[in-house]
Design a protein that fits this description.
With 441 residues, the protein is mostly beta strands. It has 5 helices and 29 strands.
Length: 441
Amino acid sequence: MLKYLLLRVREILVPTSCFLWIFGCVPLDQATTNLNTPSYTKKLQLENRVYEENIKTVRLYPIQDSYDDVIQPAVLSIKSKRNLILEFDQLFGDFQSYYARLIHCDANWSKSKLRDSEILVQFNEFPITEYQYSFGTRIPYVHYEWIVPHVKRTGNYLIKVYRQGNEADLILTRRFMIYNNQLQIDATVAISQGIVERDFNQQLNFSIRYPDLNIRNPLEEINVVIRQNKRWDNALRDLPPTFIKEDLRTIEYRYFNLENNFLGGNEFRFFDLRSLNILGQNIASIDRDENRVDAFLLKDELSINRSYGTFQDINGEYVIGNLETDPAAITSDYAFVHFFLESPPKSEAVFILGALSDWQYNDDFLMTYDNELNGYTKSILLKQGWYNYIYYIPEDEDPYHYEGSYFQTENLYEVLVYYRPIGALADQLVGYSIIIHNRRP
């Protein structure tokens, strides 16, 4: 639609040398020092969070043995010799001195009572010294990397990154998990028990066998969490067992009231921004000038026009990539990606959701309705790469209104089993299993 009416006359002729913030035209490296929006407060949150607006493209994943590892969950066995790696970009400005610290958390992501000496061999403050400046990009940035050290205990962990040794000056936080399989998880994805729901829900049936673990009271000592596509916003928690067979040392979780159901959703929408010189898939046009790149996606439509179709996606993830230059981590540019969803207005808020939003609902990914365009628009600053996303309405009884939901949808599920004996100071992660429903060849 004429590039969304020329992006409403390029957002009312905003100069390319600065970005448009709610409070006016301020250079990004200056604007980040006085942010009071809920997305960027400095209060510590024990979740995946970015605390400054110039921190972008935060990734935490196992150090790569293969190309696909970058989209794998940030979960490792305590026996593994591999490490996790944290990456992020600081837009504009020079190198800054950042430090990282690990926080051990319970199954519900509250801080545990373990001391630093009980989770780490070394002192719990790590300077982040690996960095590179971007090369040949319109928007300059510093790319940081930090290899997460091995820990002594299983469980949930939070990485806290802060500036110049001042723990109150938060930059970002990221979750990861370390497990030791001390029991066996048998899990399958089945058709929902609900007659109405069986076409669009996915049901997780699972049981736990613990022949070598001394569980005295499963109701009190075992805590199970299930998440879909690495999401925390719709994770299932505090699922009570339905049957306990002490003679067989087995705990079963088989429900009849949809407690173990997820909406299947649909395969993710995607776009390919690995080149700024040629149009990748689902890119309608690219505008370039000396200081800025604008990439306009093809118009998206309502779910009524999207029946279920089998195609390969990456379950809401994104992969940084650059078809013209290497290495992609420091030669990939940032572009303003413009989304347009043609739709009548909804009374509930509509968000762009995926790993690009950390699976969170905040103003950075909240769409705005444009009466002249008869649809929702949003512009997001993203690094070059291949992206998955969906349009999501978290407060609607049908959050997948724009996508549709189908039992056949390929999804990744993780079952995490925590064990906390009576009197223990923290939860142990004693079981971890991945189930991929309807895996593509």
